[in-house]
Amino acid sequence: MEQRIGSSSQPLEGAGFDPAFIPGLTSPASGRTKDEEPEKEPEVAEAEDAEAADDTEETEEAEGAEEAAPEPVEDAAPEDGPVFEASDRRAKLVADHRGVRLFLDDQECEFRWDEIGAVETETARFGKRWTVTVHTPDRRWYPIEIEAPARSRFTEWDAQLDAVLDAYFEEDAKADVEADAD
After folding, report:
1. CA torsion, points 38, 41, 45, 48, in degrees to nearest 10?
2. Beta carbons within 8 Å of 71's beta carbon, 6+ residues apart
3. Which pLDDT band, with edges at 50, 70 and 90, does 129 fall under?
4. What's the confidence (pLDDT) of residue 73?
5. Is the four-CA dihedral 103, 107, 112, 116 of positive or negative sign?
6. Can you tell me the distance from the alpha carbon of 132 to that of 143, in angstroms, rounded to the nearest whole number?
């Protein structure tokens, strides 16, 4: 029989321990500035400066060509529909025609309407925390807690979020049903 020293439990996995576990989260920007970069050999630095100057000229030419071209339309969905936003000092939730976006500090997670299985809201029994959980069809869920200025805001936020969900989530579900029927 073999004896082991240490814990027999397996390491935990998930978003609490590995932010890369959640698809769609962006990595934080590097805090490094140009002055802090390691020094390069003079020949390499000169070659990179020449390449940067060429790139600048190309970008200026491309920008001149882009000014004449019309801007492409990102989404065909109307942008004047209902929009819901709730935020506190750390967290933010935005639901609009594009889908639901969750922000926590410098992290962001975006879900299109076709990626969402359900959206659930919950209020804390005590305190002023309002929790919104986005459920995906592959049985994953992504909660975010927002601290409200007062408990009376919970009912306002629930009603506003319901209006956005009714407008966009139901439209997507109806389109899917119609596509399946064809």
Report:
1. -90
2. none
3. very high
4. 42
5. negative
6. 6
- Could you tell me which residues are beta bridge partners of residue 102? 93, 109
pLDDT tens for each residue of 58-67: 555 544 544 4
Helical spans, DSSP H, in 69-169: 153-164
**Helices (DSSP H) in the chain: which residue ranges?**
42-68, 153-164, 170-181
Q: Which of 129, 113, 112, 130 has its CA nearest to residue 121?
A: 130
Alpha helices in 2-152 (DSSP H): 42-68
Q: Which amino acid is at 176?
A: D
The percent of residues above 90 in pLDDT, for the chain, comes to: 43
Q: What is the pTM of this model?
A: 0.53
* Tokens (6 digits) for 137: 């069809």
Do 96 and 103 touch, CB atoms closer than 8 A? no
Q: Which residue has the tokens 């071209």?
A: 69
Q: Give residue for tokens 């506190």.
A: 88
Residue 67 sits at φ, ψ, to 5 deg, of -60, -35
Distance of CA 159 to the CA centre of its chain: 23
